[in-house]
Structures are given as C-alpha cells and as structure tokens.
Write a structure and sequence with these properties.
By secondary structure, the protein is of the alpha/beta class. It has one domain: NAD(P)-binding Rossmann-like Domain (Rossmann fold). The chain is about 40% helix and about 15% strand. The chain contains six helices and seven strands, in the order E-H-E-H-E-H-E-H-E-H-E-H-E. A seven-stranded parallel beta sheet has the order 3-2-1-4-5-6-7, sandwiched between helices. Helix 1 (about 20-30) packs across helix 6, helix 3 packs parallel to helix 4 and helix 4 (about 105-135) packs parallel to helix 5.
Length: about 240
C-alpha cells in the first residue's frame, strides 16, 4: 500500500549509495531536506553507512544489484510505497576493472558492462512513470572517460554508452517535463581506485565536489534542464 505524501519534501532514489560519491550524495541530499532511498549490493555496508549518519528516518535502505531488473523494479516500488512519490533518480552505481580490452577477463568486463550501462537503463525504465507524474529529474553519472578515449580502456567504452543513454533518454522524456542530466567527473579520490592500490598521483576531486554538482542539478527550477556537467580537478589535462 502506498503511503500518502504529507510532507512535500522531495524523494530521491540513488544507486550505489553506500560508498564514495554515492554515500556523499546521500549525506548532502538528507541535509538538503530530501527523503532518500539508497541501493547497494552489500546490505551490511548500507547498514553501517546508515548507522554512521545516525540511522535517519528519511533514509530507506534497499540492498540489491543495480543490474538486476527485479531488484531495480522493487527499489522503485519500495521508495514510492514508503514516501508516497518519486521526484529524482540518480544512477550512480558503477565500477571499473581497470583492465585493457587486450588482457581483461571477459566475465569481469561483462559484469562491468551490465552494472555501468544496463543498470542505469533499468533504473530509467522502472522510474519513468513516477517521474512523469512528479516532473522530476534523472541524473546519470558518466565520466571524463566517456568524453576522452583511452588506449584499450573498456571502462571508457561503458561510459561512452552512458553518455549516449543520457541524450537518448532526454530526447525521449523532455516533452513529458522530465529533466535528464549527465554528470561527467574527472579523477575523483574515492574507493573506485582501491583495486589499483589507491588513487593515482596528481590532481583529484573529492566525492563532495561531485555530490555538490548533483545537488546543484537537482536544485534547478522547473523548466530548466541542465544537459551535461563536466567536472575536472584543476590541473587534470585529459
């Protein structure tokens, strides 16, 4: 049974919300007065993150795989049932194997492709009717890797696909009053780099910088659709 919305506070669902950019975005959303539904593969990690915030009543935890249709459909349903509406979705879940197409493991590349490309697609598909009702916004996390080629970089291939998904989706939904924004960060100092032994040397953004960009997009007035935001640290050449 769907809860009647009596607060008027916006409701935002974000995938990959337990760490890195996703976790910081959850913090910022809650501070800004949003009610937030956050997904993540690891239920324990989600719970520990929520506990670090004081287990806020306006945070709904939704463990599940962002590339699984049943889990994504269920997350959208659960958010609407809990909060009575859905205003925004942020497709943040994604990762890199940091391997080349020349030597990367095919199954690892398949998994990355499903998470990084199918995942946002499933979220859009599941949330679209609710977003049309609220005239809300879709935010997709791309990457500078989706703007600049890298030698043999399959992660870059997946992010180019996300950039294409953003524009295709914008064309599909803009006449329904739904906004679509692509945010393309440069290098960000987050656990994204853990599999390579830490963030490479040189300039890097923080998760807070990217979360600020997401909140800025979501805070635009009705009728304003910010299509693409590219955020690099000063000094990053590529």
């Amino acid at each position: 049974m769907t809860t009647t919305d009596t607060t008027g506070a916006p409701v935002t669902l974000i995938t990959g919300g337990s760490t890195g950019i996703g976790a910081e975005t959850v913090r910022r959303l809650l501070k800004a007065g949003h009610r937030v539904a956050a997904t993540g593969r690891d239920a324990g990690k989600l719970e520990r993150f929520a506990a670090s915030l004081g287990t806020p009543r306006d945070l709904l935890l939704l463990p599940g795989d962002a590339a699984d249709e049943t889990a994504v459909d269920g997350a959208v349903r659960a958010a609407v049932e809990r909060f009575g509406r859905l205003d925004h979705v942020v497709a943040n879940a994604g990762y890199s194997t940091h391997a080349s197409v020349a030597d990367g493991d095919p199954e690892a590349m398949r998994s990355m492709l499903l998470t990084n490309v199918l995942g946002p697609t499933l979220l859009i598909r599941a949330a679209l009717e609710e977003l049309k009702r609220s005239r809300g916004r879709i935010v997709l996390l791309g990457s500078v890797a989706g703007l600049k080629y890298g030698p043999g970089n399959f992660y870059s291939v997946t992010k180019w696909a996300v950039h294409a998904l953003a524009e295709n989706t914008r064309m599909l939904v803009t006449e329904s009053g739904v906004g679509v924004s692509l945010i393309a960060p440069g290098k960000v100092d987050t656990p994204f780099w853990d599999s390579r032994g830490g963030t490479p040397p040189g300039p890097a953004l923080t998760a807070e910088h990217v979360a600020d960009a997401i909140l800025w997009v979501l805070g635009q007035p009705e009728g304003v659709d910010v299509t693409t935001v590219t955020v690099r640290p000063t000094g990053q050449v590529n």
